[in-house]
Amino acid sequence: MDGEMTSEDLVRERLPETIDRETFIPAYLGLVASAHTWGGSRIYSEKFGITAPDFAIISTLSNYPGVQASEITDIVGLDKSVVSRRLQRLAAKELVKADNSAGKRLLFLTRKGAEIHNKVLPVALDRSERMLTGFTEQEKHDVRNYLRRMFENIPRMNYMD
User: Fold this and answer.
1) Number of helices and strands in the chain (H, E)
2) What is the pTM of this model?
3) What tens digit of pLDDT does each residue of 33-42 get?
4) What is the enclosing helix (H) or strand (E) of 98?
């Protein structure tokens, strides 16, 4: 091919083997995760001036004061460049501050960051409950366990011989 495509290069029929979105679990996981993240970002931005990834970092620091940025990437599952940019943004908003006194760059919420956390938390918890509308308590428990088991299988899923 010389870079120019013709109509003969277009595949106009469905391929014989494809992913069925109704049965392919990663498709649903991706849809739910995207809807949760983007919806959260819209709501949190309008109400609190932060995004869903910002809140993931703030939430992590509320649970683990004094962690390093590399630990945040592991806890929230975001790329380190995303975490780095988000931390810079949160520091500029005076929601997060680094303490270098121990010879390491340890991250903490500021009082303002803790206030934002406490305002966003009820909204985040409500959104989680709304996502599970119609689920029994047993089904909610089962979903959490299934997701935890999937998470534990990630190294196996990403390993290629």
Assistant:
1) 7, 2
2) 0.83
3) 999 999 999 9
4) strand 96-99
